[in-house]
Fold these 2 entries.
Entry 1:
Amino acid sequence: MGSYVDNNLIRDEHVVFETKYHWKIFFSLKAIFSLFIYPILARWSDEFVVTNKRIIIKTGIISRKTFEMNLNKIETVNVDQSIFGRMFGFGTITVIGTGGTREEFPDIAKPTEFRKKFQEVSS
């Protein structure tokens, strides 16, 4: 588990599921132009976590973007997968909160497991 999540868990909160970017991010122009440094750093630093109380997503190293939402404020977690995404286990997670909050996170490994754990914990 990443250091951001470790440092920001609240009392009686524990991690239920954690995932990273899929290895597919190594096959992009961004990866080639950065000599594969970008995908290595992204997989090492970015965190996608479901806890028993909320969803926590942290991206970025120098400039950090965090998304934290209590489970009772989330309407749904959608998963979009192409044919290749289904074959190789990656997809886009879209978290939709009450009040119209919508956040998309592409190229996530095990997106259906992420949604399943969210559904198990929130029910």
Note: Residues 3-122 form a domain with the PH-domain like fold (CATH 2.30.29.30).
Entry 2:
Amino acid sequence: MLRTGKIVAGFAMGLSCIAMLAPATARAARDIAPVGAAAPAFTLPAQDGKPVSLADYKGKWVVLYFYPKDQTAGCSLEAHNFQRDQDKYKAANAVVLGVSLDTVESHATWCTKDSFSFKMLADPEHKVVDQYGVPLMTRGPASYAQRDTFLISPSGKIVKEWEVKDIQNHSEDVLTTIASMK
């Protein structure tokens, strides 16, 4: 019986260690912004330090994508695919806006290094992340936005939301969705 108790205790201890290493995800104060609702208005600084507002893009499709961290593998792949497709977005009367909890300086460094021409918006106080109800992931004292995308119509309504799992094909999925809604 003592041996079984040690095995169970060891198993439980192992599970708690795994749980501590895995990123914790917590829902923001509000639920995810619902499809069909007016997109919450916002203004955030871009990588050049200039303010960007959702209202600046009235009459265009807006791809508002939230991502965890500048210059990380998955986020770089996603951003490079959005950059690769910039001509297609322009042809579809659409703009791409990336949002993370990183700073303007972090965005400026990354955009210069990787030649991103679309706007990356800094939300270190997670005001817009919270407005859209994007869950936060935490690792120790650091927080990161979950990878979520909102497609906003030219009239300012949220028409689609993705909890992104397929980073490689995400930009193509967004373009296909825009084309299907025209």
Note: Residues 1-30 have pLDDT under 50 and may be disordered.
